[in-house]
Write a structure and sequence with these properties.
heterodimer; A: Rossmann fold; six-stranded mixed beta sheet; three-stranded antiparallel beta sheet; 25% strand; globular; B: MetI-like fold
């Protein structure tokens, strides 16, 4: 299934706060399938770029055009935050919340949430308060909550920043399944291993600007710019 | 000290003998205060949620005024409500003056700013936690408010109980608008004021201890019913 949100055209998009430009101007085109990984050092604007595309950061200049109406596009997106937001509810109520918001009846929402909880390995703690879960469990819960509405685009901000190997693999498996099912992933990371494993396309961000955008294979084989090459070698890029 | 002991023993005796006047004014106290609490919470909690999620021009001023009104002098509220409800006032035709309804109206006015201010504090904190998530999910304003109110319900209980505390011990406003009429608008606090004025300290103290016991038992009952302060709950 190729979603009808794409191609996404970003033209000279910029977001600023109190006169300081956080990200931009950014020009890019995103096509309708696969995984785009946004790479870059801390403070390069990865999170802000994702939020800008998602529509939760204010676009102060330029345009971001989905192939369909913007509001309609926003209803087919979901966002997973770097620090997962746990609502003060049980696990199952957290996962079913987006369905609840969309007006799906409570029993059906609970059944679907329970299914998702089982998929992410939280099936035996449905009624536990979400806030007492471990960091990895919270991240998986946030992912399930984002994916339960079958979004066409899923934004992930450092989805496994604080996770160990096994939790990371579980999350990446879930993401791969989502991609197989036709979900478009746009994720930021500063973990190369993860970028290599997941990316079809790489956007290298530096100082709030897109420094390099290319397919994953050529990027990892030999980046075009010196900064990207230095970043890949593990040097400190400023 | 003698008065205190006499008060305690009289309180025990009155409770043990189910003194009919005592039962009547205690029930009226509860009726007036609980009604005021229900109506006040129904107004104040949505207002607090609205102030937490909605950004509008005079929001900060409204919050500041609400905070200031927490210390609203009950006597003045009573006076204003009296003027509004008196025969020549705008709501005189309703004939509410010197009825329990008038007392409920005055208490609602007193406790709404208190409940709204305390509730707003906790809802604001919760909103800063939920903000990104709910914005990202395109949640409507009403859904935001309902989500916040539901997830902060235990903190809101504290806000409501503060309102209950203020209302049950209040005397200035309900004395003015109720008139402390025997078998009609006399409640525990106005009876205490009356007995003190008459010099019957033992009876006044007895009523006072009963009032305190009532406040404590209502608080305990609400806590017990809502199972707060248990592990893993909010």
């Amino acid at each position: 299934m190729v979603s009808d949100l794409f191609p996404l055209k970003v033209r000279a998009a910029q977001t600023s706060r109190r006169g300081k430009v956080l990200v931009g101007p950014v020009d890019m085109d995103l096509e309708g399938a696969g995984v785009t990984v946004v790479l870059g050092p801390n403070g390069s604007g990865k999170t802000t770029l994702l939020r800008l595309l998602h529509g939760t950061a204010r676009l102060t200049r330029g345009t971001i055009e989905w192939a369909c109406d913007t509001m309609q596009a926003r209803h087919h997106q979901a966002f997973v935050f770097q620090r997962p937001v746990m609502m003060r509810r049980s696990v199952v109520d957290n996962i079913s919340y987006p369905l609840h918001i969309k007006g799906i009846c409570k029993t059906e929402a609970r059944v679907r949430a329970a299914n998702w909880a089982a998929r992410i390995g939280l099936g035996d703690m449905l009624e536990r308060p979400a806030t007492v879960l471990s960091g990895g469990e919270q991240q998986k819960l946030a992912l399930a909550r984002a994916m339960i509405t079958n979004p066409k685009v899923l934004f992930l901000d450092e989805p496994s920043a604080a996770l160990d190997g096994r939790a990371m693999r579980e999350i990446e498996d879930l993401l791969q399944e989502a991609v197989q099912a036709g979900t478009r992933l746009i994720l930021s990371t500063h973990d190369f291993g993860q970028a290599r494993r997941l990316a079809n396309e790489v956007v290298f961000l530096l100082h709030g600007q897109v420094h390099e955008q290319s397919h994953a294979a050529p990027f990892f084989a030999g980046p075009q710019t010196a900064q990207a090459a230095a970043f890949l070698r593990g040097d400190i890029v400023e | 000290m003698n008065d205190l002991w006499a008060g305690i023993s009289q309180a025990v005796w009155m409770v043990a003998s189910f003194d009919s006047d005592l039962v009547e004014i205690t029930l009226r106290s509860l009726h007036v205060t609980l009604m005021a609490l229900v109506i006040g919470s129904a107004v104040a909690l949505p207002l607090a949620a609205f102030l937490a999620v909605r950004r509008f021009r005079f929001r900060r001023s409204v919050i500041a005024i609400l905070n200031a009104l927490m210390g609203l002098p009950p006597v003045v509220v009573g006076l204003v409500v009296y003027v509004l409800l008196s025969r020549s006032g705008p709501f005189g035709v309703l004939g509410l003056l010197f009825t329990p309804s008038a007392m409920i109206i005055a208490q609602v006015i007193i406790i709404v700013p208190l409940i709204a201010s305390i509730a707003h504090q906790s809802l604001r904190d919760l909103w800063s936690e939920y903000h990104d998530l709910l914005i990202s999910m395109n949640v409507t304003q009403v859904q935001k408010m309902r989500t916040l109110l539901w997830d902060a319900r235990r903190a809101l209980l504290t806000a409501s109980l503060a309102g209950f505390g203020r209302a049950i011990g209040e005397v200035g406003a309900i004395m003015i608008v109720g008139g402390n009429i025997e078998h009609a608008t006399r409640v525990l606090t106005t009876a205490i004021a009356l007995e003190t004025g008459k010099g019957d300290f033992a009876l006044a103290l007895a009523l006072g201890f009963i009032l305190i016991a009532l406040a404590i038992s209502v608080n305990l009952a609400i806590h017990w019913l809502s199972r707060t302060e248990q592990e893993g709950r909010w």
